[in-house]
DNA sequence: TTGAAAGCGCTAACAC
DNA sequence: GTGTTAGCGCTTTCAA
């Protein structure tokens, strides 16, 4: 295997084309005045030499990197990588590359990310992570340097240029209406304690009940510790064992619903024949058997919006005021729900 | 919001610390001879000024970027992002950052990636993508420039420095033995036509049969077009409708197995009571109900190995010969399989 | 329309 | 131990 000795630079290209580096630069960079023929010569020389542009050098000179950093909590979770895809697809289109990093919710990794973020002179920050103190401080730093920050389904409790959130209230309102119309006015809810998003989801349910002038029975609300399948399993199992026989359960997270499915299986309760199940998130809901009727978040679209907002700011069309955008959630009916004629 | 006017450079730090840029550089870079006290002064000055090192400039000067590119087909698939995580975790430890890109199996995106790869002067390439012509050409280019290339569960049909593959034969051997010992000597297989990995998996089955001196009944081998859940569904459904009543099915891909579960549900066949199901990949197998007994690939570990190999080469401990590493697959017994006393 | 030359922020000889 | 200085490869005045 032969290895190219020396890096080909603009100078080499210019030499071969018989022009100056300035002209070569203008030809390759598509700017300034260059004679058509000259340009053609330069392009040919570059191709002949197998020249690869050095964007490091360009970056040093122009102080631009066309790079956006995206921080997410867990790279193996499709919920976040779908956001990442939305961001990248949009950013690439606009000539930006995006560096994806995850911090596994560990602040030492968050610190490492920001070190890299600043050292590599990234031009914008998008994050989908929950609150932590390092993030808060770093977002402040970032903004102070004039670099825009967008929270995309991330925490609301730090400084940012723009924020994208889910219209959780609207989504759960739809789900509630569906359950009600399907004959399950007394469905159970599994929500997470001390979770602000769970709280907002709950407001969606309350809103519906308010509108129809009924009261929600607090006995049907189950509060669990976190969004894990284990919590869903334990909560459901307890209900089943106590013989409460719910006809429908609404979970505020997909993993919770997966736990409920397992509990139902254990107790020989058939979904959807004996129990209707509704979930939120829609990450693998469609792949399960039965597939789960879900409130679906437009994560890919959210990523695109985030990229759009940040590039808009990077390119200077920045409005002073920060924006908060709430993206609508869809409600998708699948196999895990049925119609209940009895209405109990 | 106040915005920092000017970028703080090494010069500023040196000025404030009352030393030369060289000394400042030595202090911040931890190399060469620097007096302890001097170093302390420089560090303080840097902190005071909120100095952020400019790795673009460093890169230009040293011609090193400490960056590895990782190309995968689909960023929303946890199979690949677990590899990515393995790579990043290892690389970060060694002071490298990794740029993750996906090409959605579209060669124009592959081209874009390599443009970026060369322009940004990345020092190593890892890919998990299947064969395509652009990839082949670009890998050749990359190697010619002296940049190492590692295929991590990617195609074997291009030039590379090192290759990591799965011991598909061994994994399927284990699964076959399990099915046999569980009383299912006549299980059905769903494999994919024209897939080299499916072919190797099949060899694992044949190997077992050879050892016990029996012949595999070809009637039990189902060949489908691709690895989609749809193909799994259709193949299984047809078998069920024909009344063949298999007692066990072994799928060479998780999505195939998901399709089989759906078909079984449709036909009122209970898993595992009436049908045992074994799968390969282990991406969401543990989250399904019932959870699927699976051949599990050590993807995270594979990523770490890939990162290790490439960094070894980048740092010059390169052996001439290219290596091929086959990583063992585990076999995990879950709920989708039972024991068959009848043995038919 | 093209070229000469300065300089982006850093490192690494080399001199002191 | 520390400072001086010449570039790394590119863009961008400015002058021709």
TrEMBL record, chains A, B:
Extract one GO molecular function annotation from the record. transcription cis-regulatory region binding
Question: Domain of life of the organism in this record?
Answer: Bacteria
> Entry's InterPro entries?
HTH_LacI, LacI/GalR-like_sensor, Lambda_DNA-bd_dom_sf, Peripla_BP_I
* Domain HTH lacI-type, chain residue ranges per copy: 8-62
Pfam families membership: LacI, Peripla_BP_3
Keywords for this entry? Answer: DNA-binding, Repressor, Transcription, Transcription regulation
Q: Which PANTHER family match?
A: HTH-TYPE TRANSCRIPTIONAL REPRESSOR PURR-RELATED, LACI-RELATED TRANSCRIPTIONAL REPRESSOR
Q: What is this protein called?
A: Catabolite control protein A
What organism is listed for this UniProt entry? Atribacter laminatus
């Amino acid at each position: 295997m032969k290895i190219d000795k020396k890096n080909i630079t603009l100078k080499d290209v210019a030499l071969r084309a018989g022009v100056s580096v300035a002209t070569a630069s203008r030809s390759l960079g598509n700017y300034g005045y260059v004679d058509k023929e000259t340009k053609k010569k330069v392009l040919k020389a570059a191709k002949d030499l197998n020249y690869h542009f050095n964007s490091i050098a360009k970056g040093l000179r122009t102080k631009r990197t066309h790079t956006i950093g995206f921080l997410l909590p867990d790279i193996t979770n499709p919920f976040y990588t779908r956001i990442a895809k939305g961001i990248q697809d949009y950013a690439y289109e606009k000539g930006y590359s995006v560096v994806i990093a995850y911090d596994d919710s560990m602040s030492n990794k968050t610190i490492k990310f920001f070190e890299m973020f600043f050292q590599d002179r990234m031009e914008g920050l998008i994050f989908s992570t929950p609150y932590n103190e390092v993030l808060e401080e770093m977002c402040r730093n970032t903004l102070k340097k004039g670099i825009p920050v967008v929270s995309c389904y991330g925490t609301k409790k730090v400084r940012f240029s723009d924020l994208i959130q889910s219209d959780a209230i609207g989504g759960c309102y739809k789900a509630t209406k569906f359950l009600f119309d399907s004959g399950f006015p007394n469905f159970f809810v599994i929500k997470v304690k001390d979770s602000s998003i769970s709280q907002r989801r709950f407001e969606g349910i309350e809103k519906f009940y308010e509108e129809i002038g009924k009261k929600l029975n607090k006995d049907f609300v189950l509060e669990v510790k976190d969004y894990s399948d284990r919590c869903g399993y334990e909560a459901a199992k307890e209900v089943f064992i106590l013989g409460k026989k719910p006809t429908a359960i609404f979970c505020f997270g997909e993993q919770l619903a997966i736990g409920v499915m397992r509990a139902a299986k254990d107790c020989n309760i058939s979904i959807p024949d004996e129990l209707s199940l509704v979930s939120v998130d829609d990450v693998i809901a469609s792949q399960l058997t039965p597939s789960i009727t879900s409130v679906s978040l437009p994560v890919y679209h959210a990523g695109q919006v985030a990229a759009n907002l940040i590039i808009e700011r990077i390119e200077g069309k920045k409005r002073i005021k920060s924006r908060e955008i709430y993206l609508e959630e869809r409600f998708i009916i699948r196999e895990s729900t049925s119609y209940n004629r009895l209405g109990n």
